[in-house]
Amino acid sequence: MARYTGADCKLCRREKTKLFLKGSKCLGAKCPIESRPYPPGEHGRGRTKESEYQLQLREKQKTRRIYGVLEKQFRNYYEQANRKTGKTGENLLSLLERRLDNVVYRAGFAKSRDAARQAIRHNHILVNGKKVNIPSFLVSEKDIIEVRGKSADLTPFVVARAESEAHQVPAWIEVVADKMRILVHALPIRQQIDTQVQEQLIVELYSK
Q1: 99 has which bridge partners?
Q2: pLDDT tens-digit series, residues 104-149
Q3: DSSP 137
Q4: Three-state DSSP state, 85
C-alpha cells in the first residue's frame, strides 16, 4: 500500500502550521515549527506572497496531510462529496472525519492518526464485532468501534484508558473508556469538526 514515508515535521513546516502528525511531540518545545516556522529548503525563508492558486493548493495539501490521505484518494473523496447533496466542502470534511483511523484518533485511543492506522492494520480494532484492518473504512451512524479484547492490555491502550478523562472527543461520538469502546451517534457536521482548514478553497481549486 502506497504511503508517505518522509519526515512528518517537514510537512508541518511546509504548511507553516502544526498538523499534529507526531502526537505528543507536537505539543512540546521540541516541535521543529517552534524554532523554524518557515518552509524547509534552501529558499524557505524567502517565500513571501502566494497567488490565489497557491493558496488553494496549499489548503488542499494541508488538509490531505492532516488526514494522511494520498492525492488520488483525496480526489476520490472530493468527487464523492460533490455527488452528495449539500455543500461539497462540508461533505468532504465529513467523509474524512468518518475514516476509521480518524475516529480512533479522535477518541483518544491513539496519539496520532499514524498510530491509529498502525493499530487498525495490526487487527487491534473491531467494528460492530468484526475485525477491520482498513484505515480508510468509513464508519456509519450507530456503529460500535472497540479495541479487541486481547489487545486492550497493550501499553498504548492502557495509557489511552488512563488519560481518557482529560481527552476531549467530538460531539458526534461517545467514548466508553472502561470498555475501550466508541459509539457513533451521528455523522459529523461542519460545526463539530475542529480541523482548521478553509474547505471552500479546496472546492475552488477542484472546480477550475
Answers
A1: 138
A2: 999 999 999 999 999 999 999 999 999 999 999 999 999 999 999 9
A3: P
A4: coil
Is the pTM here over 0.90, yes or no?
no
Q: Which of 11, 134, 114 is nearest to 61 (CA)?
A: 11
Q: How far apart are CA 90 and CA 180, in angstroms?
A: 29
Contacts of 74 (CB under 8 A, 6+ apart): 60, 63, 64
- DSSP secondary structure letter of residue 16: T
- Per the document, the length of the chain is 208
Check residue 40 and report its DSSP letter.
S
Strand order in the sheet with 130-131: 130-131, 125-127, 144-147, 181-184, 173-176
Contact present, 119 and 98 (Cβ < 8 Å):
no
Burial class (CB in 10 A: 0-12, 13-18, 19+), 208: exposed
What is the Cα–Cα distance from 49 to 60, expressed in whole angstroms?
A: 18
Decide: helix, strand or coil at residue 17.
Answer: coil
Q: Which residues contact 122 (CB under 8 A, 6 or more apart)?
A: 133
Helix axes 52-67, 8-15, angle to 10 degrees: 150
CB 102 within 8 A of CB 148: no
- With CA atoms as reference, report the closest residue to 69 among 49, 47, 32, 97: 97
